[in-house]
Amino acid sequence: MIALSSKQVLIDGRTQAATLLLEQGRIQAVNPWGDVPAGYAHHDCGEWLVMAGLVDSHVHINEPGRTDWEGFNTATQAAAAGGITTVIDMPLNCIPVTTDMDSLQAKMACLADQLWVDVGFHGGVIPGNAPHLPAMIDAGINSFKAFMIDSGVAEFPASDMATLDEAMPILAAGGATLLVHAELPPSNSHSETPADLASYQAFLQSRPDAWELDAIAALIELSNKHRCAVHVVHLSSAAAIDLIAAAKAAGTPITCETCPHYLTLAAEHIPDGDARFKCCPPIRNQANQDRLWQGLEQGVIDFIVSDHSPCTPNLKLLESHNLWEAWGGISSLQFGLSLIWTALQQRGLGLDVLAKWMCENPAKLVSLQHRKGRIAPGFDADLVVWDPQAQQTIDANNTYHKHKPSAYEQVTVQGQVHQTWLRGQLIYQASDNQHFTQQPKGVALL
Ligand SMILES: [Zn+2]
Fold first, then answer.
1. Distance 60 CA to ligand 1 centre (A)
2. Of 331, 365, 399, at which residue does a domain stop?
3. 24: CA distance to ligand 1 center in Å?
């Protein structure tokens, strides 16, 4: 039994001095600061900020099958070092892709001694796998990802409208949510290779706003038809905000996320030929970024997650500067808290929205809102202890992703994680040479 005290505990959007009583992995009570009952070991965090551990519901871990790209061990260590205590793994880039019970079991079979934080799983919707969805829902998967465009890996083909039409009533009946990569090219589109393969502008123009708008318009229609909850992953185009706002106002069960790269980077400043900045949909211009922030403030965009999508460095083609052929995906899992906190301060926003957008709201997507993402009695004692004032420079030496290339290398950010607690156990400590606990303490969330 631990009593964890700080002069700054972020509870329901407000910082206050408090002592949290942690027992059997849960927050048992929130006491006035210094009120430590007999029998509790006192752990004083001083002035460091204590908030709920972050929930990142969009992480490509790629194991089994592409474990050379990332893996449960490295991804969850990076998460712990970044103050994230729950990650949800995407169903693709691993082999087999998570689209039936056999592949789900293959994933479960490689988790032992690898989870440093708690890990949940999205299933996948692909053409032909509708008959497998009910069993996966019964096994505890309540969110399923589909692509409306080529996913980049052959094992996870895009879903056409007929596939979504077939899957959505099944998901709706099971109370599950359809997550969608929402880019829909016109049926007559053909991608023309540009003259300059390194040009970021040419890449950006090849994935126009209209693709996101058309996809989201189609999803709204399908969601209304089947009364199936739909979640738009990694919204890049701010042009779609009004459409989503109108659908929400009309009662369509639609939610939406965006990512640190769309909120902190802008096309004007992206160097040509550097695929560390390549992702799909692409990072657009500064005016678009400003409007995404407004979408968050308006509550149209519900939360912020990493879409950590790494690969082996050679697939980024950094030597040949070929943006066209390079793997698309930004590696950023560990940095989200600092990146977003830095941006929030520049925009005059505070810790209240940080907790709402990176802890509370992503937990709702995966039905963990009763135990993750808040500091309150009965919730899992998942905590990040950090210094909002401290500056740090993102560097390969302090990065735990399997591969270090990232759009954020050598970027200086504010906010440094000192400790991460998972269900009442100290799992990461920046000051300790060891950094991580001897044994991984994470569990699979099903
Ligand atoms: Zn993704």
1. 6
2. 365
3. 34
CA 29 / ligand 1 centre spacing (Å): 37
Q: Is residue 371 part of a domain?
A: no
329: tokens are 């995906």
Overall number of domains in the chain:
2
Residue 373 domain-assigned (yes or no):
no
Q: Is residue 374 in some structural domain?
A: no
> Which among 321, 339, 365 is the end of a domain?
365
Give the CATH number, domain containing residue 7: 2.30.40.10
Which residues are near ligand 1, the ion (C-beta closer than 5 Å)? Answer: 307
Q: Which mean pLDDT values do the consecutive 10-residue runs of the chain (446 residues) have?
A: 98 98 98 97 97 98 97 98 98 97 98 98 98 98 97 96 98 98 90 88 96 98 98 98 98 98 98 96 98 98 97 92 94 97 98 98 98 98 98 94 95 97 97 87 96
Q: Which CA distances in Å does 184 have to 190, 217, 295?
A: 12, 10, 22
What is the rounded CA–CA span in Å between residue 253 and residue 199? Answer: 38
Host domain of residue 298: 53-365
59 and 36 together in one domain: no
